[in-house]
Amino acid sequence: MSSVVETVTDLVLPIVDEQHFELVEVEFVKEGKNWFLRVYIDKEGGIDIEECVFVSEQLSEKLDTLDPDPIPQAYYLEVSSPGAERPLKKEADYQKAVGNFIHVNLYQAIDGNKQIEGTLVSLDEGQLILSVPIKTRKKELTIDRKNIAKARLAIQF
Fold first, then answer.
1. Concatenated DSSP letters of the chain
2. Which CATH number characterizes residue 122's domain?
């Protein structure tokens, strides 16, 4: 289904760019019996519902004009904010996240853990440094970027 994501990304980017929004992610997933085309957008200060509706309507019009239809099955189109736990995909996302609490899923466990949460202290091309709370103290942990399956902002309790 990556061709659907690529097609939709190509269609929605001009709409988002024109409005000075950021395209965070496009995903096409099946949940139960239903397919969902999800487009996550954001901007400095946050995105509002009217802006999501605008992008949804513009994208829907563009999708309706394509022949052949790139998405032959029925689906639900959802355009929304990435939320408080937005994914970290691009280098700029990681740069903005320095100093923030993040959640990282790993391909290979570190100290027996494939999921780690901590404050992103710094990063470079090859690795991240997280300050990880361990009971009453903090430990700095270096994570190779090649070992990161997914990363997102996290809410600290």
1. -HHHHHHHHHHHHHHHHHTT-EEEEEEEEEETTEEEEEEEEE-TT---HHHHHHHHHHHHHHHHH-SS-S--S--EEEEE---TT-B--SHHHHHHHTTSEEEEEEEEEETTEEEEEEEEEEE-SSEEEEEEEETTEEEEEEEEGGGEEEEEE----
2. 2.30.30.180
